[in-house]
């Protein structure tokens, strides 16, 4: 097996995206009146945050405390691409619907004219969704960014060998799955295509670090994880 190093956002709202780390967020930066637009610099992109979910699928109005913070939005502006004295080409383009982590140390919240935006580096975007207003059932068609890998997770057993039914809290977290899609590779100025080639491909069965990536689930209960290629331990 070749050694390497290994996502659950769900319906693109923070309620079902989980990580095993502390989430500390600063308040959004409020842009003063008189400023009409924001122009990102470098490899950052400006994303208009998706509308908050205020109703369940059954139409029940949610109290403010239960409103799920979106973790997706539409790219409205690209930076100039200048990083460390060179100009990097963007993979993203304006209009793309992107998925990002709810853990905001990777981006800056901004409020402009009562609308919510984030400034985020292109490399920190998890993936590109196949359409606007994407839902959880679009997860299998997501295009991972950078060196990320979308993996369909293998289910763990509900029953022990002795026939004892396991509660959710007692199950071991899945560590294996099948690669659904991969990103274009991490940026590398010295590489021929400016991207490091990915070492895993769709269809590969892989093992990954237990707490790596962002976990997601479709409405039918199928589980996926998006993680960095370096978090993959090996492939079969």
TrEMBL record:
<dbReference type="GO" id="GO:0005739">
    <property type="term" value="C:mitochondrion"/>
</dbReference>
<dbReference type="GO" id="GO:0051082">
    <property type="term" value="F:unfolded protein binding"/>
</dbReference>
<dbReference type="InterPro" id="IPR037124">
    <property type="entry name" value="Chaperonin_GroES_sf"/>
</dbReference>
<dbReference type="GO" id="GO:0044183">
    <property type="term" value="F:protein folding chaperone"/>
</dbReference>
<dbReference type="Pfam" id="PF00166">
    <property type="entry name" value="Cpn10"/>
</dbReference>
<protein>
    <recommendedName>
        <fullName>20 kDa chaperonin, chloroplastic</fullName>
    </recommendedName>
</protein>
<dbReference type="GO" id="GO:0005524">
    <property type="term" value="F:ATP binding"/>
</dbReference>
<comment type="similarity">
    <text>Belongs to the GroES chaperonin family.</text>
</comment>
<feature type="region of interest" description="Disordered">
    <location>
        <begin position="175"/>
        <end position="195"/>
    </location>
</feature>
<dbReference type="GO" id="GO:0051087">
    <property type="term" value="F:protein-folding chaperone binding"/>
</dbReference>
<dbReference type="InterPro" id="IPR011032">
    <property type="entry name" value="GroES-like_sf"/>
</dbReference>
<dbReference type="GO" id="GO:0009507">
    <property type="term" value="C:chloroplast"/>
</dbReference>
<keyword id="KW-0143">Chaperone</keyword>
<dbReference type="GO" id="GO:0046872">
    <property type="term" value="F:metal ion binding"/>
</dbReference>
<dbReference type="InterPro" id="IPR020818">
    <property type="entry name" value="Chaperonin_GroES"/>
</dbReference>
């Amino acid at each position: 097996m070749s050694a390497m190093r290994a996502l659950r956002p769900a319906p693109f709202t923070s309620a079902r995206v989980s990580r095993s780390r502390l989430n500390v967020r600063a308040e959004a930066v409020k842009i003063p009146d008189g400023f009409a637009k924001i122009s990102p610099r470098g490899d950052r992109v400006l994303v208009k945050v998706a509308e908050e979910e205020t109703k369940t699928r059954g139409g029940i109005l949610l109290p403010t405390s239960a409103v799920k913070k979106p973790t997706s939005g539409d790219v409205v502006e690209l930076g100039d691409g200048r990083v460390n004295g060179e100009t990097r080409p963007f993979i993203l383009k304006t209009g793309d619907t992107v998925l990002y982590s709810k853990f905001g140390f990777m981006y800056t919240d901004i409020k402009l004219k009562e609308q919510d935006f984030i400034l985020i580096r292109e490399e920190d975007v998890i993936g590109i969704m196949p359409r606007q207003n994407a839902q959880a059932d679009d997860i299998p068609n997501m295009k991972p960014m950078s060196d990320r890998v979308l993996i369909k997770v293998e289910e763990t057993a509900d029953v022990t060998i002795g026939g004892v039914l396991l509660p959710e809290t007692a199950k071991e977290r899945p560590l294996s799955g099948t690669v659904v899609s991969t990103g274009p590779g991490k940026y590398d100025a010295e590489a021929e295509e400016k991207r490091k080639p990915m070492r895993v491909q769709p269809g590969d069965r892989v093992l990954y670090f237990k707490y790596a990536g962002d976990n997601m689930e479709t409405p039918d209960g199928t589980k996926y994880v998006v993680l960095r290629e370096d978090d993959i331990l090996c492939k079969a």
